PTS transporter subunit EIIC (Escherichia coli), 159 residues
Amino acid sequence: MSTQPTQLLNFDPSTMQWATSSPVPSTFIGALIISIVAGYLVKWMNQKIQLPDFLLAFKTTFLLPILSAIFVMLAMYYVITPFGGWINGGIRTVLTAAGEKGALMYAMGIAAATAIDLGGPINKAAGFVAFSFTTDHVLPVTARSIAIVIPPIGLGLAT
């Protein structure tokens, strides 16, 4: 990558955004799973790997990051990406096959998840799911966009 970095990431000036040359099919579900697994893995490795006191800096700054990065890379490539891609493909198939009623249920779910906690973690998860389906041209992001402004308007009218 150091000799040809543009082959991995491409900047498209017409849309002003970065695009990967091969997007990961597991999208948000894969990122959520691997982040939880990586956190517990590093915690477990930190407890189980015992080194002398003079090597503690080596352990925390070099050994644990290298081992965890290798594990995360292999887990993403061989386990989580195929599994998450299969789940996302199933969701995409169900939403596409359900037609307008499926799109309505999707819109209601995304809007409710977006508006329920006013910018908290549920809102962020709903945003990632909505944007993943939008970038795949499965469903629009309109429900999320409307649900973002409804709670502040309601709070403003109520006061």
About this structure: The chain has one domain: 24-158.
